[in-house]
Amino acid sequence: MTLRPFHLAFPVHDLAAARAFYGGTLGCREGRSSDHWIDFDLFGHQIVAHLDPAARVVAVENAVDGHDVPVPHFGVVLTMADWQALSGRVAAAGVRFGIAPHIRFQGQAGEQATMFFYDPSGNALEFKAFADDAMLFATTKDPA
């Protein structure tokens, strides 16, 4: 099976701020747009920021490995090199991390680098990477 790009449409309260954040800070190439929406290429996936001036994120948090993870959230599983580069770019831009870059589930099945931050409309994003992509859906650590 060939992995296909996903499509995600989400609300933003300011298209100019979304353009600056997704296009500038995250480095997403912009696709089609109108006065009410903007397509972005998020590491090969199509995300669409739709204008809703009244948009307010309603979020809860679930405990995961000692951190309060915001729900809902979205993001991409990157290579470790891309994750490290994005982490540096986001930090250099002064974006506040909701959960700072770190290694989750260290020494366990599913060990991963992860970070959470918010766009200007309050949408939570998570980007993660695995040293071993086979751990993406791991439930137990394979014996050595």
From TrEMBL:
Top-level taxon of origin: Bacteria
Domain (VOC): residue spans on this chain: 4-130
InterPro entries: Glyas_Bleomycin-R_OHBP_Dase, Glyas_Fos-R_dOase_dom, VOC_core
CDD domains linked: VOC_like
The name this protein goes by in its record: VOC family protein
